Each structure stands twice: as structure tokens, then as C-alpha cells.
């Protein structure tokens, strides 16, 4: 689908007329920051990077792409983990950066909505909501860099899904430029709207393959009055599941976080970050980081949490627990969780999986899959942690002691096959919150049914008949 | 698209081979119960009523419809309000009743999911969840008759949306027979799954025009330990909005119901149902029915509600309030709300609107639209009530005193135009929770943008190229 040099120059001249010369970037140095993925594993090529500043400019640029048949790769904060927002190696595509569309358009504290440009950084959205006394609950490691358009396009998850849902559940309305360069204004701030097909949720999670999200109406919540954190120590994942049921029964929607961490994970953190707190003297098999929020008061949250933990101790579900008594202590407990990926990186590269399972099957999944891995790769080390309340595990596999991390990466495809086969056996998903992008495209094709793939292809062909939207991603 | 008599007989013979003679109903008396809508406004015709008992039978019947080019109308409990589940007057279509697919397939209290056949009655699902100590929160007037497949196909709302969302938010996975007679197994019980396009939400709310939903995995919640009801009296809808903000800030997710009722509504109820409670001696402009649920205890719920009501009285947001002190008193307060439609029916037919608005604009919408109606139809009477917490009003218009209800119905199109034009001006929706069906198809075409209609048509053509799925509905 390469253009002739003359046609490409015509196209770029047209684009310069839309956004101005300086925002059509064609030199290698200027384009470089837009071509490499977040984890630095892949660098693509592009014919140009286009940097529109308004929805109308996006529309005109996409219309030009359609007219000249130029593939385009929408790009937000470029923090994705599956190569969804960088171009391939062909150099045929242009990158369409949404970074300059970064206005908070409106905050409505009574409707509890915020209307934003797609290029707004997640943290900027959180802060604009907080300034009006509201909570925008989406929260994830990259929140200082990722854009809300990217969060929507990947249906991002994070640490508050248990209470507030994924990005999909936080979005009421969307504005999208179609692959034909038309504007769909679906910017509705409505809790109920049953007027035809759910286009919104089709664009959410489509990773830019069906259109370009340019704006969104997002849900806000009341700011909780208090937020309390605790760390529980327990023997097995099975006990963690029992704790989850107990906490949900007693605390309902006040339970806002429930993160599982294996003993191996925390030992790895202690090894690489010895300055972090060590809440327990003894070693335990598993740990759960709990967070409770209250719209009432801090004493309410503390009492609720302490009573629940008391019951869990009494029922021998947990062996021990600490409740943070200050914001600093709470932050310290969260740091343990957040440093797991950093400790892994410090130890060396490993083979990562972002999987989900029915919550009730997680313990059995771990108990079944770890021996399968040991059988195939004797001595390999499992770094298993994640959002247990959502059934989402980061199920990472590190080399046996004495085997180099880089060398072990040669087993990636074989390790993936063991883990993903087991995931599918247990009714799970091979991509819980990261999406498919280019990285997991072959895995998707391997595991999805022919019926489902055909349905997806029919939708793609119907909405993007020229096939110019983020080619090579998902399908 | 009429078949020749010979072809039709071949088709029906084939269907009898699939489901057995007795479940291919062709006689007028046998078909009659399947052809008239719930409110008795329309009776269609059908070539036959097909009554499969298994997913595989559904698949074979739909494949036969595709082969013989016979249009089909999927039907659940037939309680819809927009003529979405009855055939048109042509007699070309067959009705595909899902009523015999009524098994609860599985309940998983740890994963908090229930897997059901599409033909299960909503109440049956609620009861199966309760038997395992869980709550399936979808609740609406027709729950004793409506089927979960119909709830999904119309994305039903109801009285618990404020806390738990619409049916869409309560569904994790779907099983669908495509218009080609293929089975899409999307029965996943996962909170997170980012593996390609969101087919699930495309089928939800599609009113049977894209495929036949045969099964679903639904979300369950912990059963609240207590549920408290109160009725607040206040002067205006503006005050009701202030009360909503106050309640949400103080109670968060414990606020599970927030229903607005105008003084005129309750006067109508008192007139037609004098035996029902009259909680206040004085007349008030507006009333709000509040419901609070607690996962902790009844004293917790009572204290939370009484403190919030105390604050609302202190801030002069409400004039008066009663808190139910028993289950019987609570039921009595809900009866006031539930008897509004019955009182309306007793008074005579009126012109109904099921609309939604940004919550923050509701007071201004009512204040603007009522004078527009009075100007166009002097003396007309507004019966305004609904799920204020969701921005959803049932905004019904009754004739002026002295004008017959039937005669006033002649103004239906003109009244709709006034109300719906105003809804659109305020950024609202002309169908909040009932859907489009055949009844609102022309209104949809009138109000939706050409871009949105084209996107919907493209999806319809891609997934149902023969156009056999529930023709004449939505598009």
C-alpha cells in the first residue's frame, strides 16, 4: 500500500495545509519519540507524524488518509504494553498523535461527569475531577503519562476495577472520527440511553482499528472521606479467595482494592529494595493488599476493616495482618505492590502474562499451571501477583537460578503456550487489561473461535473498508 | 419476501424435524398469545411460532430461516413496551420463542456469577441467586414475566440502576446464534477481558436485530444485610437534585434508590387508590423515594439515612421526611411509586415518554418543557416521575380536565415532537430504558445524525446481510 513519492508529497502538503508545517513531522530526529514502544522492545517506521490540535483537524487529516489511502496509527501517551500505538516496520503509515488535544472541556459535579479531549493525560483528568470535589477512579501505573484516549482504546484496567470497573464502565459518551473522516458525536452524559446499537463500546477497546477517539464523557464519583489500607498474610491462594468472599460480604462496595502477591514476589522486592517496609517478621505463602474506602468517615472505615480482619483471623482464613495507621504507612504498603514489576526488571527480563480467570478458579489454576511449567522448564520461577478481586493475574515466569534472563527468553513462545493453554482450559482470557495490539495478534488468532474472528472481521470490514486504521493490530 | 406456499411448507416440515410437530405452531388459536404486545396496542401476524427447547435447536431453526430466507422475530416474555418482540402485519415472519430455554445453568457464589438460558424469567434468576446467598440486582415491574434474554436485548433499566447499572453492566458473557445459524460462545465469567471487539455489548440492546441471545453469564452481588426506605417531601425538582448530591456524597454506593414523584402523581394515586398510605398531612410540590442498603447492619443503614435526612432538613433542602420503620412500611412507600402507572391507567390513556437527561439539567428541562406543552395544549396535565438518580423521567402527558383521554391521543405525534425536541435540546435521549422497537423507529430516524444511522446500518448489513433478523425494528 506504499504511495508513490509524488503522491506522498501531495498528501503531506495537504496535511501541512491542515495543521501547519511544524506539526507535520518528517525528519528522523523529530519522529523518533513516536516510533518506539514504552518498554523499548520495538521501533517502527513512519512516513510522518501528524500532530493535530483540534477535532476538526483530526477529521481533515483522517479524510486525507482515506483519500490518499495512507494507513494511520492513532497514538496517545504511547504507554501501551502490546505494541498497539506504534507503527510497523514498513514505513507506509503515518502516526496521528492526539497529544495536542488536551483540554478538559467541562466538569459537571451534579451530573458527575467530566468531558475531555482524548489527549488529556489520565492524571490531568483525575486532578480536574478532584478540583470539583469528585473522584475519577481510573488509576494505573502509567497515569502520569498515559492519555485517556489510549485508556479508552485499550479499555484499561488498573487497581480500582473491583469497585468502579474498567475504563469501559467509566465512559458514558464518545466522540469519534470515522475512517471516512466523518465525525460521530456520541458525547452523551447519560446513564440510560437505549437508542440503537452500542457504538460507544465497540470503539472502546478497539485499539484504534475502527476509528479515532477524539473526546469522551467520563463518569465521576463522590470523593471517599477515608481510605484505609491493610496487608494480610495467608498460606495459599485458596485462602485469599475465602478472604475476598468474606470482605465483599461484609464491606460491599467499600472494598476498593484486593491485590494478591505471592511470598516469592515480596521476597524479590525485599532483595532489590531493602529500604521498603517489611511488615511481617515471619515468611508467609501469600499476601493480600486490601483497601477500604468510606463515604462516611475514617472511624467508619477503620472499624469496618478491623472487624472484617478480626473475623478472618477467627475463621483462620488469614495468619496475620497489619492495618496502616497513617497515610505514610498506607503508601508504604502500596509501594510493596508497586515495586514488584520494578524488582522483576532489576532481576532481569522475564516472560510476562496478563491473564484473567473466573475468580473462583484462580487457586486451582495456579495449582495446576505451576507444575506444568516446572515439568516443561524445571526450576523456573513464578512471579505471580495481580488484581485478585477482578480475576486478573500477572503470571510472570523467570528463569531458574543460574540461567540467564536473556537466554531464557528464547523459551517465550513455549512458555506462552503452556500458560495460555491452561488459561483457556480454565475459561480465562489471554489478555485481561493490556489488549492485543501487534504483540498478541498471533495468540488471538490461535485461541479465538472462527465464529468470533469472522464476526470481528465483518465489523472491521464494515467500518473501515479501506483498511487504513491501525493496520496489523488485533486482527 | 413472502415465500411461495410450497417453500413455506418445506421450511415448516424442516422445522418440525428439528423441534417436533407440537412445537411448530401454525394455528390461529395457538399463535394468538405470541402476536399481541404487552399493552395490547398491536397484534401482528406470523407464518408460524417456533418453540425450540435447546440452543442447538435454536441454531438449526435460525439456519433454516437463513436457508429459506424467512424473517424471524425472537421473543422472550413479550413484556416490551415498544413493539420489539411481536411480528409486523405482513405474516411473512416466524416468531422464535425462547420460553422453553429456561434452565439456570450454574451459580458460582465465589466468582459471583450466574449462567442462565435466555428464556429464564427475571424473577427465577433473582431467586436462584438468592438461594446461594447472592443478589441479582436487576429489578423492574415486569420481573415476574419478562425473560432475561429480553432484558439483555433491550438493555433493561429498572429501579436499581443507580447502584448496579443497567442490564448491560450486569452481563459478563453472552451466547448468541448468528443470523447465519452459527453459535458464538462468548459465555465468559470474566471481569476483565481485552481480546478484541466488544461483541457482547453490540448484541445487548440490539433488540434481536443482529442475532438471537440464547444464554448469558450475569454478575451477582453480596446480599445487603439491610435495606431502608424513606420518603422526602420537597418543593421543586431543583431541591431533589440537591438532595441527590447530598445523599451520594454522604452514602456513596449505599444509596440504592432515588425516585422522583411529582405532587400531582401522588394526588392521582390517592384519588384512585385511597387505601394506600398518605405519609404527609400537607401537600408538597415533589417527593423523593429513597432507598439505602447496607452490607453491614440495619442499625448502620438507619443511622446513615437518618443523619443524611437530618442534614437535608437542616440545609432546607427538604421540607419533611418519613423513614419506614418496618418492612411493611417500606413496602407501603414503594407501593406509592408503583401505583403511579396504575393510577394513570385508571384515569385513562395518556401520552408516555421514557426519556433521559444529564442529571444536572433535569430541573431546567422540566421548567422549560412544561410551559411549552401548556402553550401548545392548554390545560394538559403532566404526570412526571422516574428514576431521578439515573436522569430517567417518565414524562407523561394527560388531557386537560374535561377532554376525553382517547380524543387527546390524537395529539400524540405533536406532543411527542414538543417533548422530544426539548429532550434533544437538553442533550437527552428519547428512549432511556425501553428501547426503539417498531414504535420509536421513526423518531429514531428523525433525531439521530446521518453519521450514526449510517454506522448502525453498516453494522446491521455486515452481521445480518440477508436482513432476516427482526425486520422493521430499530432501523
From TrEMBL, chains A, B:
Keyword Flavoprotein in annotation: yes
PANTHER family in UniProt: BLL6224 PROTEIN, D-2-HYDROXYGLUTARATE DEHYDROGENASE, MITOCHONDRIAL
Biological processes, Gene Ontology terms: respiratory electron transport chain
Keywords annotated in UniProt: FAD, Flavoprotein
This protein's record includes keyword Flavoprotein: yes
Domain FAD-binding PCMH-type: 42-223
GO MF terms held by the record: catalytic activity; FAD binding
Alphabetical list of SUPFAM superfamilies matching this protein: FAD-binding/transporter-associated domain-like, FAD-linked oxidases, C-terminal domain
Name of the protein: FAD-binding oxidoreductase
Stated family: Belongs to the FAD-binding oxidoreductase/transferase type 4 family.
Organism of provenance: Rugamonas fusca
Cofactors that this protein relies on: FAD
InterPro entries tied to this protein: FAD-bd_oxidored_4_C (IPR004113), FAD-bd_PCMH (IPR016166), FAD-bd_PCMH-like_sf (IPR036318), FAD-bd_PCMH_sub1 (IPR016167), FAD-bd_PCMH_sub2 (IPR016169), FAD-linked_Oxase-like_C (IPR016164), FAD-oxidored/transferase_4 (IPR051264), Oxid_FAD_bind_N (IPR006094)
Lineage, opening ranks: Bacteria, Pseudomonadati, Pseudomonadota, Betaproteobacteria, Burkholderiales
Signal peptide range in chain numbering: none
Top-rank lineage group of the source organism: Bacteria
